[in-house]
Amino acid sequence: MMSEIILTVNQKFEDKFKNGYPLISAEALASTAGLEEEGSIIKLVDRRKQFIARGYYGKQNKGLGWLLTWKEQERIDQGFFERKLKNAINQRLQFFQSEDTTAFRLFNGEGDGIGGLTIDYFDGYYLINWYSEGIYQFKNEIVLSLRQLADVKGVYQKKRFAQSGKYIEEDDFVMGERPEFPLIVKENGVNFAVYLNEGAMVGVFLDQRDVRKLIRDKYAEGKTVLNTFSYTGAFSVFAAAGGAAKTTSVDLANRSEAKTNEQFSINGIDYERQDIIVMDVFNYFKYAVKKQLKFDMVILDPPSFARSKKHTFSAAKDYKDLLKQTIAITEENGVIVASTNASNFDMKKFKGFIDKAFKESGSSYKLMEQFSLPEDFRTISQFKQGDYLKVVFIRKTG
Ligand code: SAH
């Protein structure tokens, strides 16, 4: 175990940290002297040298590391990781017992007490995301804890700490057995093909589980559905499973077509009766207007930041315009599902974009449903940015 680096907090941040704020940032510290080796233990003290909390040094785009305990006596050792993991498992027993959902988030960073670390469960296999070199220093303790506390068929990992949080390409296998890919997992009875060893993304974003279910159970029947930024078509598959008249999936990545065909096929849905289009969404909007296409439901789930050949899209700047283009191709009484995972604005601001987009389009609307992260993506009230997901169902009423 490395020795502790004692760092003094600027007075103005003292209360925040004492109240449980977990993210260490340079501006909150009197000095960052001594921070050299990632994974070092940091002891934060106030200006009277009184203990506030203990954490680790690990650089992410968000900050310099995370606080782990506010108890002076508590050490960051094997027992610490076991306690955190055990608690996380106990919070999710109903997920472990579920037969129709076999993929969920087991450990959600600071929401479960360790910022910079997430663990997802895929039918007996575990995927660990390391968000800094610092947390990766605790790999042995964390993997050992997992093996002791859970039935582990195999473990994979994603190192997300190349520059500015980028994924490091390598063999992501850690231990156990390698399943045959695709690994077929279930979500509310629907199959998903998951690939744990093909780059940063595995085929499904688990945080949209409740949204997909509602689309299938309450909104899709008989409807024409346009799914933009569709990736592997997860929303389209749920819409089709809910009886949609037809789904149209649009994504500019070449891989999306085969991946979406696969998701339909493993659910017994004929993909040839669905449209899967490899195209820039912004070009598709122009095409749809020209062809006077309109949809009963449009799903918008763009990345918070993306660069294509012609466009740079940033959710904070461009979501309103994306909505205006969507409103133009949505039927009256149709529903827009507007989603964003941007953590740099909150629900209130998001609703502001929505209101502006409808006003500027001369349309009226009604808010129908609203979602933030599902319960397996635990968050803490002291760290609001951690609750990044915002999804709103909007009915176009005029
Ligand atoms: N909605 C998806 C996840 C979206 S991930 C789901 O629920 O599974 C973001 C996707 O947007 C990626 O697949 C990426 O290829 C796509 N994308 C980014 N910019 C795009 C653009 N301008 N036009 C079309 N697709 C885009």
How does this model look, in words?
With 398 residues, the chain is an alpha/beta fold. It folds into three domains: 4-69, Archaeosine Trna-guanine Transglycosylase, Chain: A, domain 4, CATH 2.30.130; 78-181, Transcription Regulator spoIIAA (2-Layer Sandwich); 205-396, 3-Layer(aba) Sandwich (Rossmann fold). 27% of the residues lie in helices and 29% in strands. The chain contains eleven helices and 21 strands. A seven-stranded mixed beta sheet has the order 15-14-13-16-19-21-20, with helices on both faces. A hairpin with a 2-residue loop joins strand 7 and strand 8. Helix 2 (78-90) packs across helix 5, helix 6 packs parallel to helix 7 and helix 10 packs parallel to helix 11. It starts with a strand and ends with a strand. Residues 205, 208, 229-232, 234-235, 251-253, 256, 280-282, 301, 303, 306, 308, 311 line the site of S-adenosyl-L-homocysteine.
Secondary-structure blueprint:
Layout: E1 4-8, H1 14-18, E2 23-24, E3 41-45, E4 51-57, E5 65-69, H2 78-90, H3 93-97, E6 103-108, E7 117-122, E8 125-130, H4 133-136, H5 139-149, E9 154-159, E10 173-176, E11 183-187, E12 190-194, H6 209-219, E13 224-228, H7 234-241, E14 246-251, H8 255-265, E15 275-278, H9 281-290, E16 295-300, E17 305-307, E18 312-314, H10 315-328, E19 330-340, H11 347-361, E20 365-371, E21 390-396
Parallel strand pairs: 1-3, 8-9, 13-14, 13-16, 14-15, 16-19
Antiparallel strand pairs: 2-5, 3-4, 4-5, 6-7, 7-8, 9-10, 11-12, 17-18, 19-21, 20-21
Helix pairs in contact: 2-5, 6-7, 10-11
The structure holds S-adenosyl-L-homocysteine.
GO biological process, one term: methylation
Keywords: Methyltransferase, S-adenosyl-L-methionine, Transferase
Domain RlmI-like PUA: 7-70
